[in-house]
Specification:
One of its GO terms (molecular function) is zinc ion binding. By secondary structure, the protein is an alpha+beta fold. It contains five helices and 13 strands. The strands form five sheets. A four-stranded antiparallel sheet has the order 2-1-3-4. The N terminus is likely disordered. Bound molecules: zinc ion (8 copies). The site of one zinc ion has 7 residues, from loops.
Length: 229
């Protein structure tokens, strides 16, 4: 009888290795060594989806290169094979990703999607807002530290884009869209939530979680806050 060639082709394995850089959340050339369980994950979100606890991004100390597999302290480039771990790297959040004009806001304590020049940090709202809102918005103290009034989950560090209502209250964009099916008032203060609806219809297809196409940026930038986590 005939045996199938035992020398399994390596094409598959190689192809897999080449094609794989990062996860569905981030483009990065390294894995994070989770400070909590010592397991290797591409990102905090991948970790949190698989474990029963959350990874504290600020505590990450080591990463593993996906190319040479060397474990080393967190840095932008592999010290062994020079693989670039991330076009963007924040040494505070240990965020590695392709360049989306991120910046680290010290007051927010996290990285946000910029460009930085387009945003200012309002100390009263305690949040980075679009430049054109400077002096022209209703400050609500620590507004982003309040949970979303719809889903009651965190807004400040959520990856879901936050939507600023005309009254100044915040909710997740996805929750805002759900809310519009039910009614048009801010659930916190009952003010009309409608001012921007006209734009929404237009932009629904265009705006993703990632930076919006530049041609729409001016039209929408005052309605969103981006978090890059
Ligand atoms: Zn863990
Ligand atoms: Zn991930
Ligand atoms: Zn390496
Ligand atoms: Zn950061
Ligand atoms: Zn900020
Ligand atoms: Zn403010
Ligand atoms: Zn929500
Ligand atoms: Zn409100």
């Amino acid at each position: 009888m005939e045996e199938m060639a035992a020398s399994a082709r390596e094409d598959g394995a190689r192809g897999q290795k080449q094609g794989r850089r990062g996860c569905k959340h981030y483009d990065r050339g390294c894995l994070l060594k989770a400070p909590c369980c010592d397991k290797l994950y591409t990102c905090r979100l991948c970790h949190d989806n698989n474990e029963d606890h959350q990874l504290d991004r600020f505590k990450v100390k080591e990463v593993q290169c996906i190319n040479c597999e060397k474990i080393q302290h967190a840095q932008q480039t592999c010290e062994e094979c020079s693989t670039l771990f991330g076009e963007y790297y924040c040494s505070i959040c240990h965020l590695f990703d392709k360049d989306k004009k991120q910046y680290h806001c010290e007051n927010c304590g996290i990285c946000r999607i910029g460009p930085k020049e387009d945003f200012f940090h309002c100390l009263k709202c305690n949040l980075c807002l679009a430049m054109n809102l400077q002096g022209k918005h209703k400050c609500i103290e620590n507004v982003s530290r309040q949970n979303c009034p719809i889903c009651l989950e965190d807004i400040h560090t959520s990856r879901v884009v936050a939507h600023v209502l005309p009254c100044g209250h915040l909710l997740h964009r996805t929750c805002y869209e759900e809310m519009l099916k039910e009614g048009y008032r801010c659930p916190l203060c009952m003010h009309s939530a409608l001012d921007m609806t006209r734009y929404w219809r237009q932009l629904d297809d265009e705006v993703a979680q990632t930076p919006m196409p530049s041609e729409y940026q001016n039209m929408t930038v005052d309605a969103y806050v981006f978090v890059d986590f």
